[in-house]
Amino acid sequence: MTDDLETAAARLEALGNPSRLRIFRTLVRAGDPGLSVGQIQEKLGLPASTLSHHLHRLLIAGLVTQERAGTTLICRADFTVMQGLIGYLADECCKDVGITCGKEDAA
To answer: Which domain does 35 fall in, by range?
Structure first.
């Protein structure tokens, strides 16, 4: 559980920066096809060096993947990791009070 906690904390920390959150949300919106670095830069208006720095942090956290297609670098949100993080946050919802996600236990 500690490893899960550490991983979740690192991923949430990466998303805690407004620029990284904007990048990640842009990639989530793009879906499976992803976006090239140039397309992300165009959509968000970030300087290349700033975008590179933030993408690197998202890569280290495991939230984003990159794939080279010729001379183009395609970035994608890792939806499996995203769902895992959301699940990690929701898994313990209301367990201490004996209800499930805000609904009273029928038993």
So the answer is: 2-90
Question: pTM of this prediction?
Answer: 0.87
Residue 83 placed within a domain: yes
- 20-45 tens-digit pLDDT: 999 999 999 999 999 999 999 999 99
Strand partners, 103: 100
Tell me the three state secondary structure of residue 14: helix
**Helix (H) or strand (E) segment spanning residue 84:** helix 79-90
In Å, what is the CA distance from 60 to each residue of 11, 14, 48, 65? 9, 9, 18, 9
CATH of the domain at 11: 1.10.10.10
Question: What pLDDT is attached to residue 99?
Answer: 76
